[in-house]
């Protein structure tokens, strides 16, 4: 039987019973007439095998209420409806208590990847989804080219994934291979959650040792010279970097700032973090006094819009960050700085300076506790690790101890 004929026959079997009656109704959307304060959901009916009647099933609202804008929620609810439709088309039966997936209902390896990509869209941040999709699509292409186009995802075992990861490491780096491994692990977790495979074996695959590029802190001389050049030639970039330096934001967090995120009365800043949660931070006076008059701009205008302060700049966060990174690369070239230095280095530099200043009067624990409120680290342990990584705590000169040790030998 040709493959397309078999697929059509299977799809018909999933949708209709032996009498030709529809097994389920098309999933529909309830959007509360656009009211964001009320619950939105997807609903459908399924034919009860005992009564032969279509019966309404429990409604589904997975993740929908987390979307606070009309546009975002409309987009998410449509994706959820498509996902429910796909699950029904692949043989889901709410009355099947055994929950066994028959061989005919299993996904081929490429289909499994497509299914999870569709499922995850809208559930994770846009930047993470782009990376997630890119790496899984490359994995899918490799599987197709190596004989898994029509084989079930259950036939992809640990050895197959290791072979793929080895090919990634050979073409790029250990770091890229490890990042790909993490994405495939998330993929397999989703497969387990949807009962497409029984276990996630990716955690058994080792993480390859890699040497990450480290953002080094700037010396006092480097910092002064860079700021002097920025003030002369790149004033917008200078203010951008001062938000990193004085408010300890990540570059992408600065890119997300809008005029309305600044509370000029309370001198506070509302920052969207990498998890899309909003955190409130004070704006230190040293930075607040440098923010220009923004009264002519809308609250929805971005604080930084390419080479100007304030304006409409609709593009991906990554594109904005890359724009300023490319500008700063010109500055790095002026001073002969390598890949170990970047805009993120200013965050390390000023956290180090602030910590060492605190340590003049405070114990290590007191200094860390005070700094934790400023940097936004979630836990004390996370901050301690960060400070170790950037060498913020250095020992006192131990020359006298060496002299004493040498004297004892004599």
TrEMBL record:
PROSITE patterns named in the record: TYR_RECOMBINASE
Record Pfam families: Phage_integrase
Keywords, ordered alphabetically: DNA recombination, DNA-binding
A biological-process GO annotation: DNA integration
Record-linked Gene3D superfamilies: 1.10.150.130, Intergrase catalytic core
Listed InterPro entries: DNA_brk_join_enz, Integrase-like_cat_sf, Integrase_catalytic, Integrase_recombinase_N, Tyrosine_recombinase_XerCD
GO molecular function annotation: DNA binding
The Tyr recombinase domain, residue ranges: 213-399
PANTHER family found in the cross-reference section: PHAGE INTEGRASE-RELATED (PTHR30349), PROPHAGE INTEGRASE INTD-RELATED (PTHR30349:SF64)
Family: Belongs to the 'phage' integrase family.
Name of this protein: Tyr recombinase domain-containing protein
């Amino acid at each position: 039987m040709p493959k397309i004929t078999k697929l059509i026959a299977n799809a018909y079997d999933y949708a209709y019973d032996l009498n030709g009656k529809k097994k389920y109704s098309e999933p529909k959307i309830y959007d509360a007439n656009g009211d964001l304060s009320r619950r939105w959901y997807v609903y459908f009916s399924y034919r009860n095998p005992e009564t032969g009647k279509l019966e309404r099933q429990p409604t589904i609202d997975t993740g929908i209420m987390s979307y606070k804008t009309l546009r975002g929620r409309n987009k998410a609810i449509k994706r959820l409806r498509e996902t429910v439709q796909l699950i029904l088309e692949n043989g889901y039966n709410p009355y099947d208590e055994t929950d066994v997936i028959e061989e005919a209902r299993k996904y081929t390896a490429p289909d499994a990847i497509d299914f999870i990509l569709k499922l995850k869209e809208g559930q994770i941040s846009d930047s993470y989804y782009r990376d997630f999709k890119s790496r899984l699509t490359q994995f899918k292409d490799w599987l197709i080219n190596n004989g898994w186009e029509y084989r079930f995802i259950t036939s992809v075992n640990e050895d197959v994934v290791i072979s793929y990861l080895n090919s990634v490491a050979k073409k790029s780096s250990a770091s890229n291979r490890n990042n790909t491994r993490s994405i495939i692990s998330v993929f397999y977790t989703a497969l387990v959650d949807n009962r497409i495979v029984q276990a996630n074996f990716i955690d058994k695959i080792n993480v390859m040792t890699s040497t990450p590029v480290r953002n080094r802190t700037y010396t006092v001389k480097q910092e002064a010279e860079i700021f002097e050049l920025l003030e002369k030639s790149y004033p917008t970039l200078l203010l951008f970097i001062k938000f990193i330096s004085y408010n300890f934001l990540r570059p992408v967090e600065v890119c997300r700032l809008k005029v309305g995120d600044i509370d000029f009365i309370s001198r506070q800043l509302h920052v969207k973090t990498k998890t899309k949660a909003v955190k409130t931070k004070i704006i230190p006076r040293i930075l607040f006094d440098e923010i220009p008059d923004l009264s002519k701009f809308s609250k929805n205008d971005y604080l930084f819009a390419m080479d100007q302060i304030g304006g409409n700049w609709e593009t991906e966060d990554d594109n904005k960050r890359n724009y300023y990174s490319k500008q700063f690369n010109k500055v790095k070239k002026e001073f002969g700085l390598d890949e170990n230095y970047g805009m993120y280095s200013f965050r390390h530099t000023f956290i180090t300076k602030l910590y060492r200043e605190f340590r003049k009067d405070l114990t290590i624990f007191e200094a860390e506790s005070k700094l934790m409120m400023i940097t936004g680290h979630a836990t004390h342990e996370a901050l301690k690790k960060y400070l170790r990584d950037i060498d913020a705590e250095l020992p006192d000169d131990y020359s006298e101890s060496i002299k004493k040790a040498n004297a004892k030998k004599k």
